[in-house]
């Protein structure tokens, strides 16, 4: 109860700050009030198009996220095993990390259909985060344990399960949680630029074009809430898996 009350008071404080900023702005076109935003959000939630946008946006972003995690783990494994692979793929990792996401989004508009642009952008944001963290986790594996496993001729799958996996898990968990937040931001940004059908990004873009500030705040609130929910779901899922695997 204390924890619930704590966060409830913090939420009230931020709503109060929001209201004061609205009063200082002095115009609904410049800044929407909390009350107007809640009313607009309630109106959006009655529309079937809104829920289609939520489902399609989540689908695109989760697809890109899953691809980024899978390919990131694969490349981390390859580059940790082979120095040649590490030298070959290192420039690619540097390019992806250094290039602004907006540049990739604009290029993707030339190469791909608009519905695939958010998937591509999400993939490129998630890939280097997972790659770098999992690679570091593999490199930090206890060498004495590996030598012992080699001396006792322990099978590879047992070494992966009992030596590599515990070493990589903290790095992988941190990478996945961080990547989820970044994936959501990149995916929505790609939708705002590409404006695919049935997307949260298109709703944000249309609200901005027509100067519907209250609607813009409502769409943005949805994006923030979904980001928090997805990130929390990932954390809970990882904690449950850790609890199950712990003897």
Task: Throw out a few tags for this protein.
globular, single chain, 85% helix, 247 residues, mainly alpha
Summarize the structure.
The protein is mostly helical. The protein has helices spanning 2-25, 34-44, 48-81, 83-98, 101-111, 117-139, 143-151, 156-194, 200-209, 213-245.
How do the helices and strands line up, and which of them pair or pack?
Blueprint: H1 2-25, H2 34-44, H3 48-81, H4 83-98, H5 101-111, H6 117-139, H7 143-151, H8 156-194, H9 200-209, H10 213-245
Helix pairs in contact: 2-10, 3-4, 3-6, 3-8, 5-6, 5-8, 6-8, 8-9, 8-10, 9-10
Q: What features would you describe in this structure?
A:
The mean pLDDT is 83. The chain has helices at residues 2-25, 34-44, 48-81, 83-98, 101-111, 117-139, 143-151, 156-194, 200-209, 213-245. Helix 2 (34-44) crosses helix 10 (213-245). It contains ten helices and no strands. With 247 residues, the chain is mainly α.
Which percent band covers the strand fraction? under 5%
Name the poorly predicted regions.
Answer: none
Tally the beta strands: 0
User: Would you list the SSEs in sequence order as H and E?
Assistant: HHHHHHHHHH
Look at the structure and give the mean pLDDT: 83
Helix content: over 70%
